[in-house]
Specification:
Number of helices: 1
Mean pLDDT: 85
Structural class: little secondary structure
Number of strands: 0
Number of domains: 1
Shape: elongated
Order of helices and strands: H
Helix content: 10-25%
Strand content: under 5%
Largest sheet: none
Radius of gyration: 22 Å
Low-confidence stretches: none
Length: 67
Protein backbone atom coordinates (compact mmCIF):
# COMPACT_ATOMS: atom_id res chain seq x y z
CA UNK A 1 0.00 0.00 0.00
CA UNK A 2 1.32 3.46 -0.91
CA UNK A 3 2.34 5.86 1.85
CA UNK A 4 0.30 9.00 1.18
CA UNK A 5 3.05 11.27 2.59
CA UNK A 6 5.78 9.74 0.43
CA UNK A 7 7.20 12.04 -2.27
CA UNK A 8 6.95 10.52 -5.74
CA UNK A 9 9.60 11.37 -8.33
CA UNK A 10 8.09 12.76 -11.54
CA UNK A 11 8.01 10.31 -14.41
CA UNK A 12 10.53 11.47 -17.05
CA UNK A 13 9.35 11.89 -20.66
CA UNK A 14 12.35 9.80 -21.72
CA UNK A 15 15.60 8.38 -20.37
CA UNK A 16 19.14 9.05 -21.60
CA UNK A 17 19.88 5.33 -21.71
CA UNK A 18 18.58 1.91 -20.71
CA UNK A 19 20.87 2.09 -17.68
CA UNK A 20 19.25 5.38 -16.54
CA UNK A 21 15.79 3.86 -17.01
CA UNK A 22 16.86 0.85 -14.95
CA UNK A 23 18.23 3.08 -12.19
CA UNK A 24 14.95 5.01 -12.09
CA UNK A 25 12.74 1.92 -11.91
CA UNK A 26 15.03 0.18 -9.42
CA UNK A 27 14.27 3.03 -7.03
CA UNK A 28 10.51 3.29 -7.75
CA UNK A 29 7.36 1.22 -7.47
CA UNK A 30 5.21 0.94 -10.59
CA UNK A 31 2.21 1.11 -8.24
CA UNK A 32 3.04 4.79 -7.68
CA UNK A 33 2.62 5.41 -11.44
CA UNK A 34 -0.64 3.54 -12.13
CA UNK A 35 -2.18 6.59 -13.79
CA UNK A 36 0.41 6.25 -16.60
CA UNK A 37 -0.15 2.52 -17.20
CA UNK A 38 -2.27 1.27 -20.09
CA UNK A 39 -3.72 -2.18 -20.73
CA UNK A 40 -2.04 -4.19 -23.46
CA UNK A 41 -2.46 -7.49 -25.27
CA UNK A 42 1.28 -8.02 -25.68
CA UNK A 43 2.57 -11.55 -25.21
CA UNK A 44 5.87 -12.05 -23.40
CA UNK A 45 7.80 -15.25 -23.93
CA UNK A 46 10.65 -16.04 -21.57
CA UNK A 47 13.32 -17.96 -23.44
CA UNK A 48 15.58 -18.86 -20.56
CA UNK A 49 15.98 -18.40 -16.85
CA UNK A 50 19.16 -17.13 -15.26
CA UNK A 51 19.82 -17.71 -11.59
CA UNK A 52 22.50 -15.67 -9.86
CA UNK A 53 24.02 -17.47 -6.89
CA UNK A 54 26.63 -16.03 -4.56
CA UNK A 55 28.95 -18.40 -2.73
CA UNK A 56 32.27 -18.37 -0.93
CA UNK A 57 35.10 -20.76 -1.58
CA UNK A 58 37.95 -21.85 0.64
CA UNK A 59 41.37 -22.44 -0.81
CA UNK A 60 44.03 -24.69 0.60
CA UNK A 61 47.56 -23.33 0.45
CA UNK A 62 50.44 -25.68 -0.42
CA UNK A 63 51.00 -26.16 3.33
CA UNK A 64 47.39 -27.20 3.91
CA UNK A 65 46.28 -23.93 5.50
CA UNK A 66 42.82 -22.64 4.68
CA UNK A 67 42.59 -19.06 3.44
Amino acid sequence: MRDKDKAIDPLPDSFESEEKAGEFWDAQSTMDYQEYLEPTNDKIEIGERVFEVQFRTRCLTPRGNVR
